[in-house]
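DM between two lab members

TW: hey, do you still have the SET domain-containing protein entry open?
JB: yeah, one sec
JB: this one, 564 aa:
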Amino acid sequence: MEARKRRDAKSNKKHHKRQQAAAAQQNNHAIINNNNINSNNKNEDPDDPDWILQDKPFEVKISATMGRYLVAGKDIAPGDLILRQEALVVGPCQNSKPVCLGCLKPFHGENYIRSSESEDCDRCMGCQWPLCCPTCPGLGQPLGHSEEECAALRAAGPSGRRVMALNKRTPLYNVIVPLRVLLLQKQDPGRWKAVRRMQSHDDTRRGMPSVWQANQLGVVDRIRSEFGLQEYPADEVHTVCGILEVNAFEVGDGQRALYDMAFLLAHDCTPNTSHSDDERRTMTLRASVPIPKGHAITLSYAYTVQGTLKRREHLKESKFFDCCCARCSDPTELGSMCSALVCPRCGRPSVLPVEPLQADSPWRCRPSGAPAQPRGPRGPQAAPAPPCPGYEMPGAQAKEFVDKLADESEALDTNDVSALEGFIAKYSPRLHPDHYALLGAKHSLSQVYGKVHGYLIHQLSDALLQRKLAICRDILRVFDVLDPGVSRLRGITLYEMHAPIMILTTRQFEAGTITRKDLRTRLREVASCLEQAAHILGFEPESSSEGAIGLAARDALERVRQWQ
Ligand SMILES: C[S@@+](CC[C@H](N)C(=O)[O-])C[C@H]1O[C@@H](n2cnc3c(N)ncnc32)[C@H](O)[C@@H]1O
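TW: and the structure you got?
JB:
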């Protein structure tokens, strides 16, 4: 879904180019493609909740709260392929900067070649919308700039002339995906039927003026009045907008896509699958943890490194349901304490919502198990903490603080070491060490220590290498709970972790401060990080940045094994 994936490795992918389509390791027995789905088996009506897919690892069920959803039709192991599907439709995300309508690449770097220096970019001869080059391979393609789309975009004159600055976001691009969906009615009735099976939550959205009105002005009026496409009734355009809001996946570098079958996946804030898409936006879904037969197959529509208040707000506002999953229902978020605030009375990081399923719930200090000083000594020697004299914070105050944190962390430059460290230093006295806002900043730091100018890996002092290592260990411990198993967050972090151990060990061995035995122990730890990273990221498309890290992990592992 269009989940926020800002600091998930997949979201970082937004900043990387993808060049080739390549699916990672395959488990062919479980592959399901559109051809299989459209087979003639009379039982294969996905609207029928009793539909049992033959030879496929899932079934469709229906529940009063979630509607249709997928459950495991057999025991599924971590890494097993569950689904692989082509996109039904692909296009730019909401509020996109201008992109080529053929290949959807943005206009920077070497993505486009101008045929004339006097032009800002090449443009389609018919509709005048920007293109990367006159021979873009996406021209005339069903998932690119088709002839039908070109005709629609020039029906009332060449609308692409309105796209001016190539480096500024423009709401004009918000119409492209809805239009591509509407055009399917004539272009590909099979795909149109598949899209129309999806939920649009029209009734709920109609009651939300901010949502409905934004679509009316930004999409419905544009398509019908500006582009002169009166053949699409306003209600139908609104429904398509709703279908996209509820069901679209964020893919590629700032794109969104709809997938048949995958849209049925229910949400869980601790999902049991992981998905990726390749250069052609073909999506692959795999189990990240064991999924026993009969259990729901889930993915997260929200950002996993986010607290319950914000996740539930996002799900309510953009997916139109109240999440009541195990993580949302538990004030401690499965023991991760990732929303906990420090109590101003007793100093413990134990202030949590009393009723996490109520957005306006008061927050209260729940000191059980937490030491009075968060970073103080633990274990049997730690002095028993005095009881908290009692502290409660009104829900509105907690929300105001959480909103402020969100604004500040969203404004952070994720490549700026001092800004990230400054944020951590500022908020550590007020937040649990595993609070999601600190985890987000640490996640960025885990990647920038070793990569950005002035902090390249061999330039790092021992102290900074220790810092990178400690950060990786901290975030991995929480990811193990919130996004466990074969997850990109874990794969990338394990890869980042190997470097500081390796360099510190080499420096210390050369300085004679560790023994040969210590060296062997540390190399075993490095090999273990790399083995796990290579395994997890080996499932990513090789052309993606994560796939490339998986390959690097495999190479590094071979070198470490030679050393060992
Ligand atoms: C992408 S659709 C999933 C398929 C949908 N259940 C259907 O029947 O078309 C997303 C919608 O499914 C429902 N849904 C998904 N996960 C849910 C959950 N954990 N709890 C409640 N509703 C959920 C919500 O209505 C949500 O807007």
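TW: got it. Residues 488-510 form the longest helix (23 residues). Residues 2-53, 369-379 have pLDDT under 50 and may be disordered.
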